[in-house]
Write a structure and sequence with these properties.
elongated, alpha/beta, 2 domains, Rossmann fold, 8-stranded mixed beta sheet, ProC C-terminal domain-like fold, 275 residues
Length: 275
């Protein structure tokens, strides 16, 4: 499976993170090609990973078993239309990591029937700790599903959703999710300095606490609510702090925030998917 020829259209951060993860996972750089109009981006990615590079999308796409569309949502329609003939002729598995672009729109721009997996990775993929949801269209075979999952697992967790509409919920939860946790860390840092800690100490304590809590949750089979109760002693400091957060409606705020992000994802899909 790791002998499949991969072509990336776009040499941005997400492409770099995927390529780095794949090579670390045992993929041969000689089997990976990258296309981008920016020669500086291509030179940087070639220096880092010794992969093939080209400014011509067609040249890298026509020899690919897997074509990864790693361009911004605002330009993917143009890129896909230009690649349509090549995709129809050579029939690679197409993986899209463009946020908010529905598979029906992308398939139309690519010229019709094609094996297409839509993905929603998040930015921690840049440090091989991403969370990615994948949705296959009807043309994707079981072997192609395994291949797509293997590629995305190179940068973290990868799981499938059965209904493409759920990708908007994924965008709201894990796609936008890192920003929620950065905001929480920011608030803890500021709270710590307000209590008299210096900025460096508050920052390190907030970061390590966030990391430790996530690690405990990942390594436990228990739900987060159970872990929360275990570290909350009756009448103690944690219970007092949590009571303030609950009184402020923290869960309602997060529910409303995720709903707003989901709704915006749907709006963007409508806008970007217009013919």
């Amino acid at each position: 499976m790791k002998t499949a020829r991969l072509a990336f259209i776009g040499a941005g951060n997400m492409a770099r993170s995927l390529i780095g993860g794949l090579i670390a996972d045992g993929w041969d750089p000689a089997g990976i090609a990258v296309a981008d109009p920016d020669n500086e981006q291509l030179a940087a990615i070639q220096r880092s990973f010794q992969v093939h590079t080209n400014t011509d999308n067609q040249r890298v796409a026509e020899t690919a078993d897997v074509l990864v569309l790693a361009v911004k949502p605002q330009v993917i329609q143009e890129v896909a239309r230009d690649l349509g003939d090549t995709v129809q002729q050579h029939a690679p598995l197409v993986i899209s990591i463009a946020a908010g672009i529905r598979s029906t729109d992308l398939q139309r721009w690519l010229g019709g029937r094609c094996a297409l997996v839509r993905c929603m990775p998040n930015t921690p993929a840049l440090v091989q700790s991403g969370a990615t949801a994948l949705y296959p269209n009807a043309q994707v075979s079981d072997d192609q599903k395994d291949l797509a999952e293997t590629i995305l697992r190179a940068v973290g967790l990868a799981l499938w959703v059965e209904d493409e509409d759920l990708m908007d919920a994924v965008t709201a939860l894990s796609g936008s999710g890192p920003a929620y946790f950065f905001l929480l860390i920011e608030a803890l840092q500021e709270g710590g300095t307000a209590l008299g800690l210096d900025e460096k100490t508050a920052r390190l304590l907030a970061l390590q606490t966030a990391f430790g809590a996530a690690k405990m949750a990942l390594e436990s089979s228990e739900d987060a609510s159970v872990l929360r109760r275990r570290v909350t002693s009756p009448g103690g400091t944690t219970e007092k702090a949590l009571a303030v957060l609950e009184a402020g409606g923290i869960k309602t705020l997060f529910h409303d925030a995720l709903a707003a992000a989901r709704d915006r994802s749907r709006e963007l899909a409508e806008q970007l998917g217009e013919p």
